[in-house]
Design a protein that fits this description.
The structure is a homodimer of 525-residue chains.
Chain A (H helix, E strand, L loop, with lengths): L8 E7 L16 H15 L4 E4 L11 H15 L8 E2 L3 H4 L21 E3 L15 H7 L4 E2 L9 E3 L2 E5 L2 E8 L4 H9 L3 E3 L10 E7 L22 E5 L5 E7 L4 E5 L10 H4 L3 E8 L2 E8 L6 E7 L14 H25 L9 E7 L9 H7 L11 E4 L1 H6 L7 H4 L11 H15 L3 H4 L3 H9 L3 H22 L3 H23 L5 H9 L1
Parallel strand pairs in A: 1-2, 2-4, 4-5, 6-9, 8-10, 10-11, 11-13, 16-17, 17-18
Antiparallel strand pairs in A: 1-14, 3-7, 7-8, 12-13, 14-15
Chain lengths: 525, 525
């Protein structure tokens, strides 16, 4: 299926999870996301694509910094405005497709803007709409006329997805989008048959159906992902955002007979093996109902090399009873890191646009009676050679963790400082707390409002955001509660303390200081 | 001097201190600034002005909320884009005029943007550039192509102001701008002859010289304002921002022979008499070297009525020894408020666009042995009739304050909770603390960097921002200090605690809890 490009061929640049502003304050990596975004836009321009399709998380932070917004506006204005005419038309009702926008039409048809490359994007879980005004960072871009934010549903119970209908020559694309929704909520909606993808009335079968979604594709829990088979089988291609590993070459879901392309992120945000896979974006050609996904390797992405060592697998090298074993381990790790640095350097030599310092991660399983050595001193040796000196080495004990029993549901035990070597995940804490709480404690405010379910949604988020979100949520609920009871005077005080709470909880979290006192205060306030 | 409009006449809409986002969360007043901004832009459009000139503080918050930025972009895109051609040209080097912009040219000449009304703005003290990237909120608008941010100096020691040279027919305007700078710093620079207004090389006298500035015009302290006579006498008209009282009709500075127009704010931000003056914007006509300022009354501004009562002036009505005097005072105040509400209602009847609920302030000087009554209960009576029920009544004791001695410089005494009836101003605290500290305490970090002077600049800001700013400033200094000494590990911790500190200090401030422990910790960290 390799159509030759002609006036009937859509050329679409496909990318996702660009995470603008990620680590923006880091002296080494601070500009990585901006540089790569520019590279992506430049590929779009050079390839004279019809449009850019983004799968969410263009921004890393829900409220991106001024610098990040500024830089993004700059890039879009620079690369996506100009005289090259846009060669496709929109057949659907734009007032429906962009109903929540103050300018509910596609930007390239605005007579006051000279757009050469329209960008269409759904929002991700990082840049989703929040607050009373339910705006997201993409809406700033969209209000400025530099991006078309689509795929936003306003109901939490039922979703009807109206496609944007595009035509270029004889090719017609029905572009469906669904911005990020907490996985468990969306899972439930799918199960309850509350997600409907509307079809064009005429010539239903003549459309190439392209769906872009930003959810967990891999199973993170029973209902904490979206199984591929939930999606309608009339779809031709799913562009799946959120998952950071690049699997951009379309692979078939045999059951549903559609293809999935998972572009992956354009920046390394977690030091896990999936992120070490070479980053690509896609140049999607669609002609009639045929498609071809061309891979474009990103040249400005900082390389990331990750390796694992299991100390217990080397009884010949390491004996836990040897008093000098720690030095031996350290020497071995240095050797490994040097090899990884060599590999990184060789790779970089072939690509002058790649940033100089690589990201290096060595995961050391020290189960079996070994002791971790000082990561701090080890890091210092690589201060000027790697981009992430502070977290090159990660000690863990996989074997022992597997053997451990399930954590007791007793809240009393949970909230004490976690034992060394284990990490207490806030989402576990919150989940288990509410499991316990709902059974035992009289939580009039919480249970009457279905707090339990709401909490589930929050804990799906990044760990570091979980408590902050929870606090906000709970405070808003409490405020509403108080408002209804007309004790207005209390509101102001709550508002004032809101900020403090959020900072406080983030602070606690970062320092692994989630104490009972804080939690109870935060939850019950 | 009333020129007839023709093809040689510039028509300029002049406004300042719009403070977008002020009280945006207030259920009654939340939209006031957005509504009035739209009214201002609509006046510009209806009057077919050549451009809009803003004198700073377009935004109330240095980091305006998403809603505020979104709303501002929406208004500018709606009112300032379109097909009406811009009929003046720019003769100066735009790369100089807009040197700090990523798009260093005026927006209406950008071939990708269809601008009908260019907006030129300096920044104010509320929306001034901050942070490592030295961006301000206006730069977001400017990067989006919807505003021309000018008058920004990058040096803190020497300022050369290059005018934007505009020509329409035979009229030539040299537009000088100077974005807000801490008054004392700018005062010093003027005194040291470090502020230079550059003149066009040719036909120096043929230009109408228009200067827009955003500083204290009234004297707040020996050097805490900019005396009018500091400004060059070749100027024809100064548009003076920052001062909120509307004095838009140009008045002459006889010494310098130029005119000053002080447009005033378009929203009431402080409940002081100056803000009760009817709000106007200006339609400035300039033809050759003649000008005319036409006043345009703003119709959407919420009315504000303020009155003072001095209880001791009414010995016939109030006797402090009478056990029922408090009831009598309260009844008197209610009568006053009712009269003010009547006045407000009459005024509003003539203007259907004015918001329904007025802002009412009754200042009660209770010196002479009287007791304040419960403001809370009083407020509740007006909950549904005034926009600011919580602060209708303001009790103060003018007489006794005058008699009071200067506050002791002893820090120990200062930081205890202030005595009832007095308000401890944070700027006093900070000033006095440093006066004491610099003499007595070994402050290596602070004094070696001229902290004392820097603090002066911060205390000029709004009281509620003072400590927060100070903390930020001090933390940045400390970080720099630590960086230079290569103890990188400490940085991350500081960054984490920064947020906490800022919230904490704001919180302390709002609750009048500026304790010694906090202050010392904050200053010395």
């Amino acid at each position: 299926i390799t159509p030759a490009d002609d006036e009937d061929t859509f050329k679409i640049l496909v990318a996702t999870d660009i995470h603008l502003g990620y680590m923006e304050k880091d002296p080494v990596r601070g500009n990585d996301t901006f540089v790569t975004f520019n590279e992506i836009l430049d590929h779009a321009r050079k390839n004279e694509v019809d449009f850019i399709l983004l799968g969410g998380d263009l921004f890393h932070d829900n409220k991106p910094s001024r610098k990040t917004v500024h830089s993004c506006l700059e890039s879009l204005r620079k690369y996506c405005m100009g005289d090259r005419p846009v060669q496709f038309e929109i057949l659907s009702d734009q007032a429906v497709n962009f109903h929540y926008s103050k300018f509910p039409w596609v930007n390239y048809q605005d007579e006051n803007l000279n757009i050469s490359i329209p960008v269409f994007s759904i929002h991700g879980n990082h840049d989703d709409p929040t607050g009373a005004d339910a705006l997201c960072a993409l809406d700033i871009l969209s209000c400025a006329g530099l991006l078309n934010h689509f795929g936003r549903s306003t109901s939490v119970e039922k979703i009807d997805i109206s496609p944007i209908l595009l035509r270029k020559g004889r090719t017609k694309i029905a572009l469906y989008g669904l911005g990020a929704i907490p996985d468990e909520r969306l899972y439930r909606m799918f199960v309850n048959k509350q997600v409907t993808m509307l079809r064009p009335k005429e010539d239903e079968d003549s459309w190439f159906n392209l769906f872009v979604i930003h959810q967990n594709r891999s199973k993170h829990g029973a209902t904490n992902y979206i199984p591929e088979q939930f999606l309608d089988d009339f779809i031709n291609l799913v562009v799946w955002g959120h998952e950071h590993e690049c699997k951009i070459a379309p692979f078939k879901n045999e059951q549903q007979r559609f293809y999935i392309s998972q572009p992956g992120s354009s920046v390394v945000t977690s030091l896990s093996p999936g992120e070490a896979v070479k980053k690509h974006i896609g140049l999607l050609h669609v002609k009639g109902k045929k498609m071809k996904m061309e891979k474009i390797a990103l040249e400005t992405v900082r390389t990331f090399h990750i390796e694992d060592i299991v100390l217990a697998d080397h009884p010949d090298l390491f004996n836990p009873d040897n008093p000098n074993v720690t030095q031996a381990i350290q020497a071995f790790c240095m050797e490994k890191v040097e090899l990884m640095l060599d590999t990184a350097e060789r790779e970089r030599l072939g690509n002058p646009r790649q940033p100089e310092k690589p990201i290096i991660r060595l995961r050391v399983d020290y189960a079996g009676g070994f002791e971790p050595f000082s990561v701090h001193r080890f890091s210092q040796k690589y201060m000027h050679r790697v981009a992430n000196p502070k977290d090159i080495i990660h000690f863990f004990r996989r074997r022992e963790q597997k053997e451990k029993k399930e954590i007791d549901l007793n809240f009393e035990k949970l909230v004490s400082r976690p034992a060394e070597g284990t990490t207490l995940r806030v989402e576990d804490l919150v989940k288990q707390y509410f499991q316990t709480a709902e059974k035992k404690v009289q939580l009039s405010l919480l249970t009457e409002r279905g707090m339990g379910e709401a909490v589930q949604e929050f804990v799906d988020k990044e760990e570091k955001d979980a408590i902050e979100e929870l606090v906000k949520f709970q405070l808003e609920k409490t405020q509403k509660f108080l408002k209804e009871r007309r004790t207005d005077a209390v509101e102001e005080k709550i508002d004032e303390e809101k900020k403090l709470f959020c900072s406080l909880s983030v602070h606690c979290l970062k320092n692994n200081l989630v104490r009972k006192k804080d939690c109870i205060y935060l939850f019950f306030y």
